Batch of 4 targets.
Target 1
Amino acid sequence: MRAAAEDTERLRKIFIEHVAKPKLTILHGQSWGGGVAAKAAETYTAATNNGKAPYDGVLLTSGVIAGGSYSYDFRLDLRVVYQYLCNNHPRPTEAAYPLSLGLPAGVTMTSADLTGRVNECLGLNKAAAQRTPEETRKIRTIENVIKIPASSIQSHINWGTFHFQDISSKRTGGASPFGNIGVRYSGSDDDTALNAGVLRYAADPTAVAKFAADTDPNGKIPVPVLTMRGTQDPTAFVEMANFFGRTMTRAGTADHLVQTFTNDSAHSYLSDPAYVTIMSQLTKWVTQGTKPTPASVAAACPAFEAEYGAGCRFLPDYVPAALETRIPPRQRN
């Protein structure tokens, strides 16, 4: 994330040098880019150029803003529960390795091969009515224990394989920052058997520290920050907003943050009027000092539907639960 934040700041300077000096600069990050934008904002949004900050405001949408060392733990949980149920990633005939690595360095696997393994166990490529009772039972176990819908199981296993391999082999010196020591899994037909049978891994403390330094926000953002996310986002869980809010509170910048929520189950894109609304509200906050509230954002949205179509689904009274209610706490060192 630090490298991506550096690239973003470098691009801003290139724009000023070769195009024009903007009157207003909003730093916007979506999904993983939300974490990048938060990192860039806390790193570079300091008073420069006669007291003017390089970024006037920050917009974070569907953002992974709980830091990698907290946001990705559930993907290890998915790997160990999936292996307990399916035992084909790796197969018994293949060399065993710590699932917390994703894949060992140098080991290759295609996404098509991984998809094939998942389908042979779970039947995700079938209509629900066409799955066997055993496939249905295994999918239900994953949905209940990991708290993700069947539609996102494949993508999260992909990340827990290829992304984890990239992290462990290229970023943390061959060690893994992910562990599940102390996790109590619940929601299966037999939690006692599940907890006794899943593989357990201890996170490497050095890898945890290195990964956290790169990905975890510190909340020290001195300009307005407005966020938006769907309450049923299956990729960047809504509970991450609670974590980010606590992070900014600890940093003493809670008054710079307003978080909004919509009745959406999408991750990559919500709706046209929703984005126009939050951008206009952030711009008004930055230029006029009018700080929005979740209620004022929700009230402002319908005016944009005539031009941008239906899509105002803001929930002004929504309060996200703690991330620990979605991703079980665990031993970290």
Target 2
Amino acid sequence: MATPATARVDLAAIRHNVALLGERAGGAEVMGVVKADAYGHGLVPTSEAVLEGGASRLGTAYIREALALREGGVTAPLLSWIIGPGEPIDEALEAGVELSAADVPLLDEIAAAARRTGRAARAHLEADTGMSRGGAPLAAWPALLARAAALHAEGAVEIVGLWSHFACADIPGHPSIEAQLDAFETALRLAEKEGVAGSHVIRHLANSAAVMTLPRARYDMVRTGIAMYGLSPIPELGDFGLRQAMTLTARIALAKRVPAGSGVSYGHLHVTDRETTLGLVPIGYADGILRHATGRAEVWAGGRRRPVTGRVCMDQFMIDMGDDPLAAGDEVVLFGPGEEGEPTAQEWADNLGTITHEIVTRIGSRVPRVHG
């Protein structure tokens, strides 16, 4: 029996995008960011394609994501950068996962795990250069460096990376960009002074947007996320030659004629102005289709774009076909690369007032990923 909805993932497109990003990185190492189930594309198959495309390392938010990669047979270097209470640090060290620390207590926790397991931890230190999210503020940076140097001398922790993250690299010309670059340079100089630097320590700052527009930010490695999936990190500057990897489709569950004046879906936000054919698309907000796509988004059906008609429900929404033919089992394309006229993920994001990251990562587990 055909599944109601499918997210097809073009692995060749991902390989193409990673190769393109590698060219833009100018010789810097490429880390592919595959957190959140590879941005909704399927963790292990997508990660394998990322590595085949030229990335040498992978990054995840959580340790459990990195451990899932190891269980899936991925042997490449891995970095996880969010370590909350209860995270399995011991397991991470035993699996050879590199970890990030932004304060002394967490670095001490990592060192304690190293002593318990007999495995020296490979750690990256994160500096807060102006995003005010993760990272040690520059005022606290010297203390973190001093503790790192002591733990390195003990043999518990090897510092292998120094990094930070941009807040506004996707807004070309934003004054914070240069300010963060300068702050990162300050953090690096302090690390050199403390002896927590050198050729074995990877400096990394650039995200997808910075890879495309900020050569100064390349350093030793770049971290590429959204662009690997073929979605532009700076849409107003175009697609940069990227190829969208995900195509989200569904099959019509029910088609029926209704008379003029028919209210459609909850609240009757839409009332038909003529006799028309409605199609029931069996995917809804429980699967990641935002409820406020109602009346704002379009799909591709029967060779044309059709509006999402009436309120999006938990498991389904309706489209209006007019007098065009439609039958149960016919395919509907919610979004794809746009090559056949279908909406793209960028169009969905623009119409819904969000970013493409949210469009693809929200697609839920009820929708199978098919890789090819």
Target 3
Amino acid sequence: MRKLLLTAIGVVCMLATFAQAGYVPAKENLAQRQKFQDMKFGMFIHWGIYSILGDGEWVMHNRKIPYNNYKRLADFFNPQEFNAKEWVQVAKKAGMKYITITSRHHDGFSMFGTKFSKYNIVDATPYHKDPLMELAKECQKEGIELHFYYSLLDWGRPDYAFGSEIVDGKPVKGDWDSYIKFMKDQLTELITKYPGVKGIWFDGDWERRKVNWHYDEIYALIHKLNPAIMIGNNHHLAPKPGEDFQMFEKDLPGQNHTGFSADATIGNLPLETCETINGSWGFDIKDNNYKTTKQLIRYLVGAAGRNANFLLNIGPMPNGKIQPEFTDTLAAVGRWVNKNGESIYGTRGTYIDPQPWGVVTAKGKTMYAHVMDKPAEAYVFIPGVKEKVSKVALLGNGSSLKFKQQQEGIFIYTDGVAWDDADTVMKLTVQ
């Protein structure tokens, strides 16, 4: 028992050391959290020199390509078809309110101009331009928020020493202090040089559970540089002090179909779930496993009904173009969002638990029942509705629906309803 107690105390001390202990979010941060929850729908972009090989963003690791050989990809990464305006318009037409893009992935290549590594798109490629700066400016112009994905894991840098044993919170073969400084320097660039940045999306913590990531320093630095910036970390665990939103990978909050969320206790922060539009994060020329418009609408609705944002990923081609299979589907999703957006944007999903037929979102004195699976009965039952409902109507055409409210909830009768194959939205007005 004493050993278990000491172990527990040690774990608590480690968490306090590795996170921003005593963090109190600034008023700017709290306001940004509310805005983040209101936006509901974002675009995730995985793009880098790995796109050239057309085998996903893990190709270096999966194919066991030596780092010095892999680095040669930079010599012919020249995305002449990249157009920031086109990318932002694709997101806007889909109804997306923010973009999260990989500034640096696990291969260590920086997709932005940085003074702290020559291994970047400006200095190491024939392209010699900074696409993230162009994207940041276009996002700011079009009212789209920009967040940066940033990898904690690095397969190639000697100071990170990938594969090294971890002793006393550091890799034995690396120079951990050097690596931590490098990350802080790059994060400072991303936050101070690029306009309109409102989020940092960390990934790779799971590769080294026993290392001291110096989150106390890193998180504090970010919040000092810009208190409004929201920090998230894809560590698949409960939120740590200093984090401002919690993300879930390829699963809705509370689910664990993929195995990533077994230990992901849901905290009290804003929530976000990310998923791919096909089966890959980065461009994969073999991947034709495209999700349908219906699947994506239901994922968006399911996330909103669980009080989470939906971050939908695309992997652009190495030339900088977004493949038409993605843009066509996103446009179709956008048409649905354009008609039904009031039931998604600005809503919260904490009022009613998910039901067998779907979910409920709420905003002010209005609730929205998202019926994705038609009930066997001739009614939709929403349990636990205590407020007096004065009207129920289909959001799509405004036609009124008969209903009966009792102590246990509300029954909405569905005779004559023309069901939407993806999601039939019923609008409930509360007195």
Target 4
Amino acid sequence: MDGLDPLMLARIQFAANISFHILFPTITIALGWALLGFKLAYNRSGDTAWMDAYRLWVKVFALSFAMGVVSGITMSFQFGTNWPGYMERVGNVAGPLLAYEVLTAFFLEAVFLGIMLFGFSRVPNWVHTLATVLVAGGTTLSAFWIIALNSWMQTPAGFEIRGGVVHATDWWAIVFNPSMPYRLAHMLLASALTVAFLIAGMSAWRWLKDGGGEGVRRTLKAAVYAAAILIPVQIFAGDQHGLNTLAHQPQKVAAMEANWETQPNTPLLLFALPDEAARTNHAEIGIPSGASLILKHHAEGVVPGLNDYAGNHPPVAPIFWGFRLMVGLGVLMLLVAWSGAWLIRRRGVDGLPRCYARGLVAMTFAGWLATLAGWYVTEIGRQPWLVTGVLRTADAVGPTGSAMVTTSLALYLAVYAALLTAYVAVLYRLAGLGRRAPGGKPMFPLPGVAQGPAEPLEDPAA
């Protein structure tokens, strides 16, 4: 084990930790706003089906929030154990931004989450609605600070270096660095699409199982419509983000396109096998001038090549394939959402073909896969820099030995696999319990609403 590269092991361990962690904020960021939508629909109509949906999905929110907190704590330990050079060099910027996230967002979510979960029958309705607003706002504010830090690491601004240490000179420039608005919009939309397909997929699973209730139908329809609207917006935001990346990190874009020579009429490669040793591609299949059209908006546009950044560009293959996985999943989401919206509009939810509903179930966690693929493109695409032009990744790694990192990595992976399996199982367990009684009675009691006894959680005959 001591023969393994400690730098690569430390990078793999941090990648494993952040890959697990990002799954849960990706859900909570948008799910808070979905819950607000359910609550406002209930307030407006008095239809208890919307409150059934709220009561189910607020449990999913709480579970995801808890998982995100726990995984975030373990991830933060690695700044000290594996990457001490990071805080030593850029802690004057990173430290305050992380502290702002805790002080302004995490506490807001933690305080009012209890009211969301348990306060509906204990506080006035407007207080419960306000708590939902504040928790949803807290999740977005948390994303704002984390994306601000990550974007600063990609496109640093507003600082000076004194004695080898970064010092802030303009906090406005630090927070609103050149890539931050594009990255934030892209991430918020990714979260919204992740939640839309999560709700649609789990609602479709429940509908296929026993028809669900009115709440299931409402959430399935709302989620499919939301996805159909948001995907074109995400495509536009992604295009703008790509153009911003081209302006500030051209070597990353060159790796995304596996383009070796700076040239006009650059093809858009649909398939290729990048060969870094020979600095060429094998088995190329591409669209003539496609990359130039997308990146420069005309066929003669000159696209930067990797040979202009020899020794200072990221590994090509993971960026090339990660980008295509993200885009491919986005196209699939577009087709599924638009076809679903068309079918629901013509036939209603009960008229959906069962094969389409099964497709939605298969797409339940598609947002997670697309987000991880995009995240890998972003983070691996920054290499060999930890903070672009300021701190190289190799200069921040600590002295921890390979054996220690390998052991802890194996333990992390085992625990994360068990936790993720349990998390998904609990989601489906909650979805299975989120049904309505045969007489149309809500699963959960609502104050001020005349209703009979709720259906038992378990079917005695099961």
